[in-house]
C-alpha cells in the first residue's frame, strides 16, 4: 500500500529562473550514522522531499529540472539505499526515487553557490527511522503524552418520558419505559467498547423537550444521536423495526408521516422550525446537513441491516421523515423504532429483558460498523493499520508511531506483547 509518511517537506528556495535547471550530478556519501545525498544543480529550484512506505522509498521532486547526469550506482554495503532511479513528471519536473532498505527520516537543506562551489546544491540527509527515533526518546515520550485521542460519543435518546408516555400497547405497556430499558442496555454495551462512550439524554421517567434532547447531545459533543422508540400504528397488524433519518423534503411513506406527526407531538405545532430568517436558516441547514446526512444514512443503513438479522423489519429500507428530534444539523442522527407496541406479539417481546438486549446489541453492531468504517477525526478509532512484518515488535511500533505500548495493546485488545507476521495492528491517527 502506498502511504505518504509524516515527512512532507516543501521548501521554496529562492525565486529560481523561468528557464529549466539541470541536475548535473548526484553524489551519495556518508553523513554520520546516515547517508547524504547531494544534488548538484545548475540553478535554485523548487523541490519536495518526502517518503513513501510499502516498499520504503524516498522521493525528491525537483520542479523545472532535467537530468543531465547518470545516476550513481549505490554500493550494496550501503545500509539504507538499494538503488536510485529517476523519471520525468508533467513533462518538465524531475523525480528522483531512492529505493530504501528500511524506513528513513529525511532532512534536507539547500546550499547556495559559495566560494567552494559555484553552483547551488540540495542536500538530503537520511537516517534509519528506527535508530533516529530511538535517539530521540525524551522528545517522543512527550509527543505520546500530547496525543490524547478522545472517545467516540454516542447520545442515546429514550423517547418520551414523564407525562408523555408515548405509545401504549394493548396490554398497557408504555413506550417510555421499554425504550428507556433498551437505551440503558445500549449505553452499557457502548461503554464497554474501548474508544466509545455513551450518554443518555434522559435516565429516568421525566419529561424532556425535543430541543433539550438535542441540546444534551450537543453538550456531550456527540458524534451520533440515536433516538429510540417503540411505536404504535392504527393498524395493529403492522410490525417490525424501522430506522429513520431526517427528511427535509417530507416523509417517504404514509406511515413515516404519521409517525413523525406522532413523535413530534405538540412541539411540531408549537415551535416554528424557521425561527426568524427562513432563507438564512435553510442555507445554514443545507450546508451542515449535507455532511451529516451522509453519515446519518450510513449509520441508519448499518443499523437496519443489523436489525434485519435479529428480527423482522417493517420496511426494507431506511425511512425518512421530518422528526424534530433529528433536526440537529451538526450531529448525524437516526431514529430507531424498535418495534410496534401496537402489535400484540411485539408488545410481549418488548417487555422481555432478552429481547431488549437483542435490540440494543443489534443497534450497537450497526453503530460500530459505521464508526469502524468512518471514525471521526481525533478519536481513538481514527486509526491506520500497520501490518506486522518480520522483526516488528510492539515497542518498535510504539516508537515509530509515537504512542505507548500499553495504548497499542489496549486499542487492539492484546493481552500480551506477542504479535505475528501479517497481523494487522490498529494505530491511532495523528
Ligand atoms: Zn415514540
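Q: What amino acid sequence fits the structure above?
A:
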Amino acid at each position: 500500500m502506498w502511504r505518504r509518511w509524516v515527512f512532507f517537506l516543501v521548501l521554496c528556495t529562492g525565486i529560481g529562473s523561468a528557464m529549466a535547471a539541470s541536475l548535473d550530478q548526484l553524489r551519495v556519501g556518508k553523513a554520520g550514522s546516515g547517508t547524504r545525498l547531494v544534488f548538484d544543480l545548475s540553478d535554485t529550484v523548487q523541490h519536495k522531499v518526502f517518503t513513501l512506505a510499502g516498499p520504503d522509498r524516498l522521493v525528491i521532486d525537483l520542479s523545472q529540472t532535467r537530468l543531465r547526469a547518470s545516476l550513481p550506482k549505490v554500493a550494496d554495503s550501503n545500509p539504507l539505499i538499494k538503488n536510485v532511479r529517476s523519471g520525468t513528471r508533467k513533462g518538465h519536473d524531475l523525480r528522483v526515487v531512492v529505493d530504501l532498505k528500511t524506513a528513513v527520516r529525511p532532512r534536507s537543506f539547500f546550499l547556495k553557490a559559495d566560494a567552494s562551489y559555484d553552483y547551488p546544491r540540495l542536500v538530503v540527509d537520511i537516517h534509519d527511522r528506527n535508530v533516529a527515533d530511538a535517539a530521540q526518546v525524551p522528545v517522543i515520550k512527550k509527543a505520546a503524552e500530547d496525543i490524547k485521542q478522545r472517545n467516540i460519543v454516542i447520545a442515546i435518546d429514550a423517547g418520551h418520558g414523564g407525562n408523555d408516555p408515548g405509545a401504549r400497547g394493548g396490554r398497557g405497556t408504555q413506550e417510555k419505559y421499554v425504550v428507556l430499558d433498551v437505551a440503558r442496555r445500549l449505553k452499557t454495551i457502548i461503554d464497554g467498547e474501548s474508544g466509545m462512550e455513551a450518554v443518555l439524554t434522559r435516565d429516568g421517567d421525566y419529561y424532556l423537550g425535543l430541543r433539550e434532547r438535542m441540546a444534551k447531545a450537543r453538550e456531550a459533543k456527540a458524534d451520533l444521536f440515536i433516538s429510540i422508540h417503540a411505536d404504535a400504528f392504527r393498524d395493529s397488524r403492522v410490525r417490525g423495526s424501522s430506522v429513520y433519518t431526517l427528511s427535509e423534503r417530507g416523509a417517504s411513506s404514509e406511515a413515516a408521516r404519521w409517525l413523525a406527526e406522532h413523535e413530534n407531538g405538540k412541539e411540531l405545532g408549537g415551535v416554528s422550525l424557521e425561527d426568524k430568517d427562513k432563507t438564512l436558516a435553510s442555507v445554514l441547514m443545507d450546508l451542515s446537513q449535507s455532511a451529516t446526512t451522509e453519515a446519518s444514512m450510513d449509520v441508519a443503513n448499518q443499523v437496519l441491516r443489523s436489525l434485519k438479522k435479529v428480527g423482522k423489519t417493517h420496511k426494507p429500507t431506511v425511512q425518512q421523515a421530518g422528526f424534530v428530534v433529528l433536526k440537529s444539523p451538526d450531529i448525524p442522527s437516526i431514529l430507531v423504532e424498535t418495534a410496534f407496541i401496537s402489535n400484540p406479539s411485539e408488545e410481549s417481546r418488548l417487555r422481555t429483558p432478552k429481547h431488549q438486549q437483542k435490540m440494543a446489541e443489534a443497534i450497537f453492531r450497526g453503530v460500530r460498523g459505521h464508526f469502524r468504517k468512518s471514525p471521526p477525526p481525533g478519536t481513538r478509532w481514527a486509526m491506520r493499520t500497520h501490518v506486522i512484518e518480520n522483526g516488528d515488535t510492539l515497542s518498535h511500533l510504539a516508537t515509530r508511531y509515537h504512542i505507548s505500548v500499553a495504548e497499542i495493546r489496549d486499542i487492539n485488545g492484546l493481552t500480551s506483547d506477542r504479535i505475528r507476521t501479517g497481523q494487522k495492528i490498529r494505530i491511532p491517527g495523528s
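Q: And what stands out in the fold?
A: The two ends are 19 Å apart (CA to CA).
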